[in-house]
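Researcher: Let's try something more involved. This one mixes different molecule types, so please make sure each is placed in the same coordinate frame as the others.
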Amino acid sequence: MKKNILIALFFALITLPPSLLAQSKKTSGKQTQELDRSIRPQPGPAPVINIGKYESFTLDNGLQVFVVENNKIPRVSYSLIIDYTPVAEGPLAGMAELTGQILRTGTTTMTKEQLDEEIDFIGATLYTNSNGLYASGLKKHNEKLMQLMSDVLLNPSFDTAEFEKIRTRNISALEAAKTEPSSISERVGKKLLYGESHPYGETMTEKSLKNLTADHTRAFYSAFFKPQISYMAIVGDITVTEAKELMNKYFGIWQKGEVVNNPPADPKLPASNTVVIVDRPDAVQTTLALGYPVELTYGSEDVIKARVTNTILGGGTFRLYENLREKNGFTYGAYSRLSADKYIGKFGVQTEIRNTVTDSAINEILSEMKRLREETVPEDELSLAKNYISGGFALSLENPQTVANFAINTARYDLPKDYYVNYLKNLSLVSAADVKVMAEKYILPNSNYILAVGKASEIKDRLKPFAGNKPIRYFDFEGNEYDPDKKVKEAPAGMTAEDVNNAYINAIGGAKALEKIKSQTITATTSMQGMTIGFDIYKKAPNKYMMKIGAGEMVFQKIVFNGTEGMIFSPMGGENKKLEGDELEEMKLEAQLVPELKYKESGITLKLDGIETVNSKDAYKVTYTKPSGKTSVRYFDTQSNLLVKEVSDQGTIEYNDYREVEKLKFPFKIKQAMGPQMIELDVLTVKINDKLSDDLFVIE
Amino acid sequence: MKSKVTKVLFIFIAVLCFSAVNAQNKIDFVEYDLPNGLHVILHKDNSTPIVAVTISYHVGSKNEEPQRTGFTHFFEHLMFEGSENIARGEFDKIAMNAGAQLNANTSFDRTFYYLLLPSNQLELGLWMESERMLHLRIDSIGVETQRSVIKEERKQSYDNRPYGSLMEKIFSNAYTEHSYRWTPIGSAESINSATLEEFMEFHSIYYVPNNATLSIAGDIDYDQAKVLVEKYFSGIPKGKKEIKRPTIVEPAMTAEKRDTIYDNIQLPLVAQAYHIPAMGTPDHYALSMLTTLLSEGESSRFNKAIVDQQQKALFVGAYPMALEDPGLFMVFGITNMGVQPENLEESINKEIERVQNEDLSDREFEKLRNQIEVNFVTRNSTMAGIAESLSDYHIYYKDANLINTELQRFMNVTKDDIKRVANQYLTKSNRVVLYYLPKQSM
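Model: All components are placed in one shared frame. Result:
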């Protein structure tokens, strides 16, 4: 009997579902039983998501203030948003941005240096931008920070010297951005999407920066920096009573005033897909962006549904990421954004892919966009997206700034008072049918600007099919369109290569003066691997030549041409070599004091091949064909007529920094590429008509 | 894994590795070891219903073989492939369905994984991490896919980006013997040749409880968390293979090393790197404070003199590369347009010489200490950050409580210490100097 019971118990136990078994073991207090790892743990009861409290008040001047008290850390932070309607700046593009920057460079009572010192001394941060400012510091220095912040915002000095520094820095920053593919994509992408006359489509350029002055920033500030359109968020270790008192004391004096309010006209959707290339001949990857403007503004009831829709497509590690990265290995990541805005929203896809899959990647992106429009999203995928969004919402509440942002958004975009309280509820109501409606409305596979920043020669044929019957368009970094087949512009009618050569002769001093040169000595240096290397070049009429390369007393190489014979000496080892054949012929030309004066006698023919750009400046392109049949191409600046670049089988040489020596002009910076190395020569001295001994040119 | 970023400090985002202490916000925690060697650290904060479940493996690129550079980072990608009970591609989805965020990063010294979850999903997070520690499952499809992905990551983050090779060039010039001579992303050839078998072997050596620290911070109950940790991790066997730790000591430099790199850039960059002692040493704290003096805030030495007054640089900064073995003190500057790199370097050297030759004023030293204090007080504002700091302090110093006390080590540094370390370490023969010059001007 007893035995039977035991056996029955035994069978009961082994036929129990493993989970119960594990549980019964756990309650027995022992852990000897193997855990069944195939069971995914279920969540505990859902925690209550509290959005957190904020308080708000408005100053007499109309400034709205939102306070979120949080004393985990003894710090207070401030963010001010000045909500003026964006303005098209045209030839002054960058005006708002520079206004934001100049605010931080001094007040009517403090220089930038004093201001920097005060801020750093209390370990605070204080940044200004075109739409306001951000500051944060320890509670114990709170009033000091308030005082500095108010002074910066209300009493800026618009100092012209500081403005010049800002201009210089921005020009340099633009220069640096020219080689950063994501910056190029962003600049050109904005211009395409919004158009150049829309404030969102404008970008500052070197030219617009040169048009701007400190007075422009002062005028911009006076017109737009007003309290009644502004919102201040205060977050941290501060009570609302303290905040009220300090805000009144330090920001109560901010004067309100009229602000122009002309909302920009909405940009147009492209009628069909438009393909644009920004050529980066060195690119090893294509930076790809697809997108278009969408009419989706804050407050629209579509916003939450549209967010779910975009999430499924590519708002995280979803369809685009799964497809392009995890399935195909095309990229490190692929994402899409569908963003609402106060004026005009935007859809965009962004990914970096290897050149050879540029076409496949675009195909996959467009087909994912189509699939979302055509097929109803499966329930599990829909709930995955909703869970991911609601999780993110909950996690974001860890940062007290989130609550302040919610409060400001509610006021700024005129949202229902309970918009964020009901956010998760409304999110949970989004259905698969909603997603399909949203996709049909906002996901448009046939109205994209397809922008590829990459190596045109490798990707242009792959991009062609997406342009339909339209040509691919080419843009430069500044967003200027050009015809790649017509990079060379025509030279003015009637102009000849001889004219260009003569203009050059005149620019460097004129034939008369040049003919008087009987000798010339040039010394130059370059730095290689930390060592300074000197070049001494001597020329004497009619055609003697000697060049010495060395460091200090050491001579690495010496080239001598006595008028008929030439020799290369290598004193540090290596063979000495006599110049013969073509090399000797080249030397003969090189040895002339001013070869430009004697092209015809030397049997060289010249041909003008139009105008090209050298370092963003127009230059005449002239091809020189020597009697040997060898050619070299020289570029002369169309403004100065000076020689700026030379390309031959010796490599590329650039000439810069022309300076006057005895009424003649010589380049003082010469850059020459030799294989992978670049030699940058700094000319130290040029001497004309010194007495040079013939001994210098003797071949021993 | 929006970006399984290799945590090579990138020059513009390098952040001082500080951690907070202040009487007002002491971080309480409990820590213990499981019998299998797993170190567990728990920090309770019930103010928001979220929890960070993080796990660090004490293995980084310095544990790699020279012909398998980038291996640790490659492996980090494979840790998202799945396990015996999580099918390929499901790892991310399970996390997202739970409303969680997840990511990982690989440094020279350790690999860090985190899950940030709603606090009712703590058990799920522990299950997921224990699954991939106990029986990660990877196959050749996963390896080949991630190989392609990492090649694109390498291009996107390094090869196709201006100055993208900077860290690789600095470390390969500064180190000749030590495995810091390559960076976590590794070489393209190595990425191409790693095999599935090698990855499984790697997991069995380094991804074991006795080489891991489980650090949990957030809305938890200590007792319940301990039970759950026990449930999912106690059954994982201790590693049987020897954990290899490099012992090689990098020989001291005897002469300055200089190199020039031609890159697809517009503005020249100057970089200097000086050898310095490992993190945690008294001199490392003094050197950290020196970098703050030189480049933190607009009134710092570099910013005031070189960026603002002389306008020679668009940007210039100094960073202490905190590494487990002796690391580098790095200085970077990008010239303003038209400024020669020699000219910028001269200004950088002049500022370093000023620290070496002149005494700090009391006011400037007080400012410096204030800046350090603020960095501490404001550092531990997120659960993920606290979990990571606790874990790092344990791994590198075997003292997680440094999260509360490390400030004192900075405060022990004197004005004279700063001058002394500037003289002792920032010398010509102890440095590498790199110039980045525009290729297109060739």
